[in-house]
Amino acid sequence: MLTLGGILGDHPPTDPDGFLTFARSLQFPEIHETIRDAEPLDDPVPFRFPASVRHRYERLDRFPDGLLVMGDAVCSFNPIYGQGMSVAAVEALTLRRHLERATEPRPRRFFRDIARVVDMPWAIAVGGDLVFPGVQGRRTPKVRLVNAYLARLLAAAAHDASLASAFVRVTGLVARPESLLRPGVALRVLRASLHPAADTRGDLEHRDAARSAMVDLFPVPEHLGPVSAGAGVHNRHAVDHGGPASDSSIRSIHCARHAGAATRSGGPAA
To answer: What angle separates helix 161-171 from helix 183-194, to the nearest 10 degrees?
Structure first.
């Protein structure tokens, strides 16, 4: 299945030719090269996701006994970042720990622990969306600095399998964001920024190594067989993240919202 995403009016078309043209407009050519000669199983299907939502139950003074909230009912993430199921799984582990300590978990204590689970992926999603000027929200110096660094890291990751793997480990919640600031990682980013590769599409050898690193991290189940580029069939659907500007603001009362985001350039803009 292939998903193309857009934001703030830049929507992937749902007709087959427009869908293919949108894929060709991306910064990196591999997606278009893979699907252009493939046989689609069906037409693209649109899906709109207006805003990510976080409910701050840990801030409530009271909560009904015998009731707990988890998953998307606590925080629904922009699906382009692929975090929702991972966060829900970690929340389930949190619930298990509470059940091991008491027959009936205490809501306030449980929600405080759930908030700690959500904090990191929420910061990743909010920071990623605030890269786009059309998304309304407060851009602190920290957000601006991190986004500027990530833009350079992603540009370098196109040619560096080690950086690509490090970034995916963070977005997949396998490693913490601080791991991207380790001296070895930062040095590779700095080196790439000072000496950018002449071929913006990336060296083929490095791209193959990056693919291998991703397969090692997220292996394809054996029953699905090998995945080959440039042939076969695929499902398609288009995702439009973000609605009108009025739906794109960030609010912090008991519920915080921000517009979902994807990018045609393959990563956050500088």
So the answer is: 130
